[in-house]
């Protein structure tokens, strides 16, 4: 820890990370040469309620598909196109930004540190607003993949099929904008394993509910969430991860390789500098969903050379956001943070270095310019601590059933909460 603090003191600050974008192909957030970046202002009203993707009403399913289809149809150069939106994530985790100034030109990464939760909250907030704007609906809310509940422990059906039936003609098909070909074919209708990173378990069919192995696996998933949200989540550092500084923001692989090379376990960083929110269900769902391209470089969209367990799209951070399910996955990660602070007594950091860290995003709904000419908005971590300030809520917050009988509701809705592992 002393070592990490020392590196932080040397000045690898979050706010410096945006200065340089090393890849001209990306729709980079602007540097100071761009004059029009406005500061984020709080939403006055909560208009969007995020709901579980597997329980969506038909109407909302169609809206979601229509919005994503429209986003995919925008020209690539538009910062709100699906390609450009997904490139944002890629840019922020695949070494396209560098710390500057820095003595080592280290890559900046929004993973593996306390920046993880707030940055992803910002990212999907602007994504959600763009989708809403595309279909002219300011109540549009991103559905979340409810993998912490037994009924949601599979890839939500709306994402699964390549084609949909055409409502106007049942014999015709139209392609499903939520589909992604780079998924693990064995997991399309399987029970998710929230500890997949460690187990690499064989798939159990999602409808095989009477199978004792199925019941066991569900319980194990609930335990994983219990660990992530309660047992191992004591305090912001455990839950969110370590303070961002150069050492912690390295990719885990690099960190581990380095300590291996040094043959010195005393300099080896803890198994991860990510918090439980990032390290547990979040990571496993990524790897579980992605298509494995092990040992065949030709099928690896990320350009890997077929190392074991090489996966994309969801399975690899650089390509994950190319899969539309990424955003619904992260809506649930975001909900997990929100539940931690609102229902589980979690307290976020009070460190101003965290609270004042800011990022710039394109906003479709921020000005009069909309989709064609989105407004650049600078948003700080302190702006995003409460979803209400961003104009959205989760069904957990607004559900009448919850207000009437919190204990019963909590048991049904958050079955991991009172589990005795
Ligand atoms: Cu930026 Cu789930 O990762």
Short note summarizing the structure:
The chain has 421 residues and is mostly helical.
Present as ligands are: CU-O-CU linkage
For the largest beta-sheet, the strand count, sense and barrel status come to:
3 strands, mixed
Name the beta content range. 5-15%
Rg result:
21 Å
Globally, the shape reads globular
Indicate the CATH class.
Mainly Alpha
Overall pLDDT level: 82
Query: Quick one: CATH superfamily?
Result: Di-copper center containing domain from catechol oxidase
Tell me what the CATH architecture is. Answer: Orthogonal Bundle
**Extended strand count:** 11
SSE topology string:
HEEEHHEHHEEHHHHHHEEHHHEEEHHH
SSE inventory with pairings:
Blueprint (H helix, E strand, L loop, with lengths): L1 H8 L10 E2 L15 E3 L8 E3 L7 H16 L8 H12 L3 E2 L17 H19 L22 H4 L2 E4 L2 E7 L20 H4 L12 H20 L4 H5 L5 H4 L2 H11 L13 H14 L1 E2 L18 E2 L4 H4 L4 H19 L8 H4 L2 E6 L11 E6 L11 E3 H4 L1 H5 L1 H8 L8
Parallel strand pairs: 2-10, 3-11
Antiparallel strand pairs: 1-4, 5-6, 7-8, 9-10
Description:
This protein has 421 residues and is mainly α. The protein has a single domain (2-413), classed as di-copper center containing domain from catechol oxidase (Orthogonal Bundle). The protein contains 17 helices and eleven strands. The protein has helices at 2-9, 58-73, 82-93, 116-134, 157-160, 196-199, 212-231, 236-240, 246-249, 252-262, 276-289, 317-320, 325-343, 352-355, 395-398, 400-404, 406-413; strands spanning 20-21, 37-39, 48-50, 97-98, 163-166, 169-175, 291-292, 311-312, 358-363, 375-380, 392-394. The strands form five sheets. A three-stranded mixed sheet has the order 2-10-9, covered by helices on one side. Strands 1-4 form a two-stranded antiparallel sheet. It has a two-stranded parallel sheet with strand order 3-11. The longest helix has 20 residues, at 212-231. It is globular and about 60 Å long. The two termini are 31 Å apart. Residues 1-27, 30-34 and 262-272 have low confidence and may be disordered. Bound molecules: CU-O-CU linkage.
């Amino acid at each position: 820890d002393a070592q990490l603090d020392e590196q932080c003191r040397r000045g690898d600050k979050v706010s410096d990370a945006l200065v340089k974008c090393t890849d001209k192909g990306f729709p980079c957030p602007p540097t100071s040469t761009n004059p029009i970046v406005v500061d984020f202002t709080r939403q006055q009203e909560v208009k969007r309620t995020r709901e579980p993707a597997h329980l969506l009403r038909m109407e909302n399913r169609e809206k979601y598909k229509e919005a994503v289809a429209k986003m995919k149809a925008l020209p690539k150069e538009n910062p709100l196109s699906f390609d450009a939106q997904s490139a944002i994530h890629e840019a922020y985790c695949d070494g396209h930004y560098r710390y500057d100034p820095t003595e080592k030109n280290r890559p900046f990464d929004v993973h593996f540190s306390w920046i993880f939760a707030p940055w992803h909250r910002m990212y999907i907030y602007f994504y959600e607003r763009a989708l809403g704007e595309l279909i002219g609906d300011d109540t549009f809310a991103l559905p979340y993949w409810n993998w912490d509940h037994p009924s949601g422990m599979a890839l939500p059906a709306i994402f699964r099929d390549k084609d949909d039936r055409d409502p106007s003609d049942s014999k015709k098909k139209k392609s499903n904008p939520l589909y992604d070909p780079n998924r693990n074919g064995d997991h399309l209708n399987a029970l998710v394993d929230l500890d997949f990173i460690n187990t690499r378990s064989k798939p159990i069919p999602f409808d095989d509910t009477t199978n004792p192995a199925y019941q066991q696996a569900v319980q194990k998933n609930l335990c994983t969430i219990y660990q992530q949200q309660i047992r191992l989540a004591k305090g912001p550092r455990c839950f969110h991860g370590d303070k961002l500084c150069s050492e912690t923001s390295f990719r885990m692989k690099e960190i581990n390789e380095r300590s291996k090379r040094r043959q010195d376990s005393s300099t080896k960083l803890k198994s991860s500098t990510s918090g439980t929110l990032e390290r547990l269900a979040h990571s496993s769902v990524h790897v579980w969903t992605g298509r494995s391209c092990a040992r065949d470089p030709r099928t690896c969209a990320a350009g890997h050379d077929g190392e074991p367990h090489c996966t994309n799209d969801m399975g690899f951070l650089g390509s994950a956001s190319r899969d539309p399910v990424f955003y619904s996955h992260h809506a649930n990660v975001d909900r997990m943070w929100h539940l931690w602070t609102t229902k589980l007594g979690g307290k976020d950091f009070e460190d101003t270095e965290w609270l004042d860290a800011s990022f710039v995003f394109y906003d479709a709904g921020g000005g009069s310019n909309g989709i064609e000419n989105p407004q650049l908005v600078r948003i700080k971590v302190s702006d995003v601590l409460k979803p209400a300030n961003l104009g959205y809520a989760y069904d957990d917050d607004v559900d009448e059933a919850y207000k009437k009988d919190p204990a019963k509701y909590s048991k049904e809705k958050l079955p991991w909460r009172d589990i005795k592992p």
